[in-house]
Amino acid sequence: MTAEKMALAKAINESLRTALDSDPKVLIMGEDVGKLGGVFRVTDGLQKDFGEDRVIDTPLAESGIVGTAIGLALRGYRPVVEIQFDGFVFPAYDQIVTQLAKMHARALGKIKLPVVIRIPYGGGIGAVEHHSESPEALFAHVAGLKVVSPSNAADAYWMMQQAIHSDDPVIFFEPKRRYWDKSEVNREAIPGPLHKARVVREGTDLTLAAYGPMVKVCQEAAAAAAEEGKSLEVLDLRSMSPIDFDSVQASVEKTRRLVVVHEAPVFLGTGAEIAARITERCFYHLEAPVLRVGGYHAPYPPARLEDEYLPGLDRVLDAVDRSLAY
Amino acid sequence: MTVESTAARKPRRSAGTKRTAAKKPPGAQPDLVQLLTPEGKRVKNGEYDAYVADITPEELRGLYRDMVLTRRFDAEATSLQRQGELGLWASLLGQEAAQIGSGRATRADDYVFPTYREHGVAWCRGVDPANLLGMFRGVNNGGWDPNSNNFHLYTIVIGSQTLHATGYAMGITKDGADSAVIAYFGDGASSQGDVAESFTFSAVYNAPVVFFCQNNQWAISEPTERQTRVPLYQRAQGYGFPGVRVDGNDVLACLAVTKWALERARRGEGPTLVEAFTYRMGAHTTSDDPTKYRADEEREAWEVKDPILRLRTYLEASNHADEGFFAELEAESEALGKRVREVVRAMPDPDRFAIFENAYADGHALVDEERAQFAAYQASFADEGEGKQR
Ligand SMILES: Cc1ncc(C[n+]2csc(CCOP(=O)(O)OP(=O)(O)O)c2C)c(N)n1
Fold it and tell me: Cα(A82)–Cα(A103) distance, rounded to whole angstroms?
């Protein structure tokens, strides 16, 4: 089979289908994942083909969903659970942070918790509150969890396969405003490691590091900057825990400037960690301080203001100009 | 293996689905409080008649008016969403009796904790319907002062508000006041830990709170059977307080039962769970597609139990309302629709600095710093004399 073009949501659907097909221990769980196929149709058709024992409509209870997924994992299953929207993960936060993340260590490594928690996240779709947040730093901060986010269909397909095969709990953030973006997926390709960053555009003047929904914005920014004669490198981090600092370092040693971009608030965010580490690793290479572009220290605003809140081309380019001005 | 286990499981699922679809009419259930049959006939009820015994024809017409105007408002909002004026709308179509009956049972000093669908209750509390639309249009995340009508903000995270209601009710007890609290939630919400914890707290502290569950049979695509194996009202027993199931399409019964529960709370007798057995006639929200998961026949079976029609039949049969009343109400309804349309279309986008407003009550240095950066950034576009490109 050669590469096919598909939307990011469809790629996840295909990936889940592949996993259900190849391993009877894989289960899909969540609210409305069955007949409805999830509110974003990411699990569309899976219950029809694999039955209600494998694709499980759960009661409306996130703590229950994650807590029982832990129990199923202890029993040898590999649950892939869906949290309907970013803002609804918090009823399950206790189970994720106090239980899921720590159980492997507490059991002296004798038990494994291969649970994947899928969370559609981020803004840009004009939704009401609690439907547009980017809480990834809250999870990346917790030892025991792995946190990833694809930015395109091919990554979505392969990263989901890898997350399901992982024996560690993986928080899988899906960039919901990219669900309908199409790109090539080659199911026979050999994917790179799950936690490795990738250069999506080569450049020499400055590195833009992003993940999930902001990768596309950074690619557009790099294209716009190219018209002004600036050569920007764009890195797709893909993983927020662990973070592939080696790849960021390699890029920064080349370009000597770094701007980190994410939708989540800048304060104590993923970008802060990257800025600190890269400053340590690349102190003598840097021509400018590492800059960050992201959300404000304010609640995610109502839909009519989200364009002001979310980093767009202009804010990214503004940071690029500031960095280049040093 | 997959095929086999699916096959073994299937009958159970379809039995569950069928149970909702082929349910006997609510009136036929012994555990359902009903004062007005679906045909509009007044039936006696030894326990709850007392709570509506002195209701006047004018008050009955008032309940009818409330339901008609609420439905009209709701329909207008649904079409405004279709026209792109609202980002989303959660319709209450079919749930008017549950909301108006319970809402009219509350006193001005009671406090109401809604979900996101309680437009009819808001109406009873005197909240301007236009205020409800800001959040769905995307110009704010709330839109009203909860204290001006003792009507709390809409809560989107399922079940959270039941604990707030319980805490508020605990405060009423501490203050020695005699008001009460009513918390709304859906059948789906009954699965949340927060709801179970609110039952525990309210029972343990004997809090004056009425839990008003509108069982509209569905939580998006999941039937009530996916949340519970016992009728929801029976849950209360395990916590040590009474639970009652009322015909949620019977406005009189909803009024009577809620009055009874609120009065219990005021007398210091603690919480009550009221399950209003009703039906969500429309989609879950405007972004939902119910054809993916439920049969048309089910909706049709509920259509004949329409809460508005049944009160109209009763009003007409008992000569409590004449043609003039209905005609006047029709005109009023049109006017409301027109006003809602105009208000929504005229609703301006918020000022961009609203992002930073009210993040803190006492202010915060980081917010001030980011606001200033934001201002400088905006000003850099103004200098260039051109609009901001996106
Ligand atoms: C904690 C949480 N999980 C998931 C959702 C998404 N969601 C919104 S409404 C809904 C169904 C609610 O059903 P029910 O409680 O029966 O109330 P209804 O909408 O039918 O009135 C779901 C799953 C949410 N808002 N909050």
Answer: 21
Q: Considering only CA atoms, which of B314, B341, B300 is closest in space to residue B67?
A: B314
List the single best residue of B88, B191, B218, B366 to mutate versus A (max A Cβ within 10 A).
B191
CA end-to-end distance (rounded Å), chain A: 50
Give the CA distances from residue B71 to residues B76, B334, B344, B345, in Å, rounded to whole numbers and listed in that order. Answer: 9, 12, 17, 20
- pLDDT band, very low/low/confident/very high, at B382 (cuts 50, 70, 90): confident
Both tokens of A61, joined, read: 């209870």
pLDDT averaged over chain B? Answer: 92
Contacts of B194 in chain A (CB under 8 A): 91
Let me know: does A33 contact A60? Beta carbons within 8 Å: no
- Please give the DSSP secondary-structure letter assigned to residue A215: H
Q: What are the residue ranges of helices labelled H in chain A?
A: 8-22, 46-50, 62-74, 93-94, 103-106, 136-140, 153-165, 214-227, 245-255, 270-281, 306-309, 313-324
- Cα–Cα distance for residue pair B304/A191, rounded to 1 Å: 58
Residue B228 is classified by DSSP as -
Contact B307, B250 (CB under 8 A): yes
Q: Are B115 and B155 in contact (CB under 8 A)?
A: yes
* Distance of alpha carbon B190 from alpha carbon B361, whole angstroms: 33
Chain B contact for A296, CB < 8 A? yes
For B276, the 3-state DSSP assignment is: strand
CA of A57 to the centre of ligand 1 (A): 14
Summary mean pLDDT of chain A: 98
- Chain-centroid distance, C-alpha B328: 27
Task: Provide the pLDDT confidence category of residue B4 given band limits of 50, 70 and 90.
Answer: very low
Burial B160-188 (b: 16+ CB within 10 A, else e): bbbbbbbbbbbebbeeeeebbbbbbbbbb
d(CA B27, CA B30): 8
Closest approach of B137 to chain A, Cα-based (Å): 8
* pLDDT exceeds 70 at position B29: no
Radius of gyration of chain A, Cα coordinates, nearest whole angstrom: 19
d(CA B331, CA B199): 44
Q: How many CB atoms within 10 Å of residue B53?
A: 8
Q: Which of A181, A124, A133 is nearest to A155 (CA)?
A: A181
**Is residue B369 packed enough to be buried (19+ CB in 10 Å), middle (13-18) or exposed (0-12)?**
exposed
Structure tokens at A66: 């994650």
Q: Which residue's entry shows tokens 């559609």?
A: A120
- The Cβ of residue A241 has, within 10 Å, a number of other Cβ atoms equal to 21
Rounded CA-CA distance B377/B302 in Å is 56
In chain B, residues with a C-beta closer than 8 Å to the C-beta of A90 are 157
- Between CA B88 and CA B86 the distance in angstroms is 6
Cβ within 8 Å of residue B183, ≥6 positions away: B113, B161, B162, B164, B165, B166, B198, B209, B210, B211, B212
Cβ neighbours of B9 in A, within 8 Å: 51-53
For residue A2, name the pLDDT band (cuts at 50, 70, 90).
confident
Q: Are A197 and A210 within 8 A, CB to CB?
A: no
- Pairing mode, strands A206-210 and A258-265: parallel
- Residue A86, phi then psi, degrees to nearest 5: -45, -50
| Closest residue to A302, CB basis, from B140, B220, B227 | B140
Interchain CB distance below 8 Å, A57 and B137: no
Nearest-by-Cβ selection for B87 from A64, A127, A296: A127
Per DSSP, the residues of A65-122 read HHHHHHHHHHTT-EEEEE-SSGGGSGGGHHIIIIIITTHHHHTTT-S----EEEEEE-
